[in-house]
């Protein structure tokens, strides 16, 4: 009789523990990044009343006779499946869309590392990105993430200029402007003038090796070309390039050279002034130098790189044409800016903390760090939505979001609890009924013992 009573007691304890876990799951149904747990039971050891025997020629074998002694808790497992997304539009709220955990620390040297899926972070008074409990969030180098809102960027001078867009074939004396920054951050506007009408060849010329139509197998091919003279002047209208004093010489004139499809070919000088049929035309490799009092000279290369995206001739992406559509050519400075201070920041899907400055520049300040484990279920909960590694979780693998096995970061959103209320209430019902049934085993065993005691009357 005592065996059945103790079996019932062991099962009551197991079901009570399961109810504790269910209660904790339901309590955290709205906890950011919470991972639900589940309980599984196993049979407790059995008492063997009679062992098994083998068969013989005259008699068959017999099976063992055993009485089970109750139930045990086999495991309490954490479900690490991703929870649903809650949009918040708060810049410091982050969610990992995939594998990985945020890494946080509670000491200055980041020796103690803890892991969490709860990305409801905030900034402290020193600009550190911290959890709601004040733990610092670490970057990919395992250093605390800090945004210095007093950070400034020095002014940078413009060193490259490109011409982008189209120049209508029939337009004359078209002018576009470009802003150039000096080393102090001051702006100097220049006018890029395309003088007169295009100069057009009357006889075809041998294909230019810089022509996008050039084919080494047909190097003797001939094409029509046109030329448009270029001058550069300041806002007062004074020509600064070429040198006006040298304008009477052939070397003092530069031309944008176009092929018969209207594609830019090169920046050249003509062998004979204003004569498109003269040969050869020679590639220009000049420099526009502007002297600025109190600042370094502004120097801009003037060559065919002006007509390529990012001044990248090797990349081969030409940005300037001369065809019969509206003129919209404009000068674009590729670099250079005024001085500025950090205004705000945002976080990209790659975990990059990008500072946005008052001068329009952007800079990657730090990159958020993530960690992953071969067996996340082996992590140990320590409260506060935090986990720590154990011998069974595997070695931590650190990296950046959206690389390798790590998920991307979704800014302005949070991962909610993965608790399934329907499943939890179902488990609650089965746990309650299991508890009731085992309590009935105990009361029934007690009644039988009472009958046994009454035999003496």
Automatic annotation (TrEMBL):
Domain Flagellar basal body rod protein N-terminal: 8-35
InterPro entries for this protein: Falgellar_hook_FlgE_sf, Flag_bb_rod_N, Flagellar_FlgE/F/G, Flg_bb/hook_C_dom, FlgE/F/G-like, FlgE_D2, LlgE_F_G-like_D1
Domain Flagellar hook protein FlgE/F/G-like D1: 95-164
Location of the Flagellar basal-body/hook protein C-terminal domain: 411-455
Pfam family, one: Flg_bb_rod
Ranges for domain Flagellar hook protein FlgE D2: 168-336
Family under the similarity heading: Belongs to the flagella basal body rod proteins family.
Stated role: A flexible structure which links the flagellar filament to the drive apparatus in the basal body.
The protein, known as: Flagellar hook protein FlgE
Higher taxonomy: Bacteria, Bacillati, Bacillota, Clostridia, Eubacteriales
């Amino acid at each position: 009789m005592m065996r059945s009573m103790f079996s019932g007691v062991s099962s009551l304890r197991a079901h009570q523990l399961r109810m504790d876990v269910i209660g904790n799951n339901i309590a955290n149904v709205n906890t950011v990044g919470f991972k639900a747990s589940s309980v599984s039971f196993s049979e407790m050891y059995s008492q063997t009343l009679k062992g098994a025997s083998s068969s013989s020629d005259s008699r068959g074998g017999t099976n063992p006779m055993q009485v089970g002694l109750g139930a045990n808790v086999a495991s309490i497992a954490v479900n690490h499946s991703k929870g649903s997304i809650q949009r918040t539009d708060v810049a410091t709220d982050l969610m990992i869309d995939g594998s990985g955990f945020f890494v946080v620390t509670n000491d200055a040297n980041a020796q103690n590392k803890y892991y969490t899926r709860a990305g409801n972070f905030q900034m402290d008074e020193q600009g550190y990105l911290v959890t709601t409990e004040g733990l610092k969030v670490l970057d990919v180098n395992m250093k605390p993430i800090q945004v210095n809102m007093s950070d400034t960027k020095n002014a940078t001078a413009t060193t490259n200029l490109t011409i982008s867009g189209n120049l209508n074939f029939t337009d004359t004396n078209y002018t576009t402007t470009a802003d150039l920054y000096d080393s102090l951050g001051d702006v100097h506007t220049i006018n890029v003038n395309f003088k007169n009408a295009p100069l057009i060849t009357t006889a075809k010329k041998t294909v230019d090796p810089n022509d996008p139509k050039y084919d080494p197998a047909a190097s003797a091919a001939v094409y029509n070309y046109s030329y448009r003279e270029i001058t550069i002047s300041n806002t007062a209208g004074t020509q600064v390039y070429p040198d006006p004093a040298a304008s009477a010489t052939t070397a003092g004139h530069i031309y944008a050279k176009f092929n018969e499809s209207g594609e830019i070919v090169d920046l050249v000088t003509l062998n004979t002034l204003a004569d498109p049929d003269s040969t050869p035309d020679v590639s220009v490799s000049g420099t526009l130098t502007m002297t600025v009092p109190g600042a370094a000279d502004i120097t801009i290369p003037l060559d065919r790189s002006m007509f390529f995206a990012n001044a990248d001739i090797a990349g081969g992406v030409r940005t300037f044409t001369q065809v019969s559509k509206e003129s919209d050519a404009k000068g674009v400075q590729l670099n250079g800016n005024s001085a500025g201070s950090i205004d705000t920041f945002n976080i990209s899907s790659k975990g990059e903390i990008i500072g946005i400055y008052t001068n329009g520049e952007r800079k990657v300040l730090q990159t958020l760090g993530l960690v992953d484990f071969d067996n996340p279920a082996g992590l140990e909960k320590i409260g506060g939505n935090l986990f720590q590694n154990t011998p069974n979780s595997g070695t931590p693998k650190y990296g950046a979001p959206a690389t390798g096995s790590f998920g991307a970061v979704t800014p302005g959103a949070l991962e909610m609890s993965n608790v399934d209320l329907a499943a939890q209430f179902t488990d609650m019902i089965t746990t309650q009924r299991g508890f009731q049934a085992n309590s009935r085993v105990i009361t029934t065993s007690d009644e039988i013992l009472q009958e046994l005691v009454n035999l003496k009357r």
